[in-house]
Amino acid sequence: MLAGGAVLGLGTTATVAAWTDTEWVFGGASGTGDNAGVGTSSFEVEQNVVIPFDTAAFVQDETNPGQALTFGLDALSLTPGDSVYAPVALRTVTNSVAGNLMLEPAVAATGVTVVDSGAALWSALTLQVWASETAFTCNASTVASTTTPVITKIVDGALSTTGGAAAQALSAASANTQHYCFKVTLPSNAQTNQSLNLQGRTVAPAWEFSAVSS
């Protein structure tokens, strides 16, 4: 019998072995197979200045001066007290998320020649704008009527400085349309309030609808 303990000496070194495995996942969306599942949305607005605002006539025009509003020939022959009207409609494109529109104050239209020394006519004109999700006729009787479908006056002031008082909501994927009616007026007291003669002048205001996704 040996005292104290036992020593095993086989003359070899033992190693431990194991089965291994790995699993991977990637940023894909449910049901998309091998397609990417992380990305960004799209936000795009389009406009139409041609009544009756057919779908085919909506376009994107993102630089000044944009499309021309149709105020009519009378807009070039205003006398004190006269007003002219022009419509425009805006909506999102078919693959766009929702957003909001804000009408900014008028600026000079890029590349359009005018005759308005000292910006006298520019300073004299006033602007009113109405907005509605429901299409409406853009004329004097409609905007003055109490029976017109809900329209909201969003601009009322000097053409040179006044923008929209509130934003208008656009639904995603062309689900709604915002209709606008612009009214430009040469006030009846315009000549008496100006040291310069306003006759024979022209201006070309351009308006930006700034749009933000929501």
Automatic annotation (TrEMBL):
| Source organism, top-level taxon | Bacteria
The species is Cryobacterium levicorallinum
Which NCBIfam families does this UniProt record tie to the protein?
A: cognate_SipW (TIGR04088)
Write the protein's name: Acyl-CoA dehydrogenase
- UniProt xrefs under InterPro entries: Signal_pept_SipW-depend-type
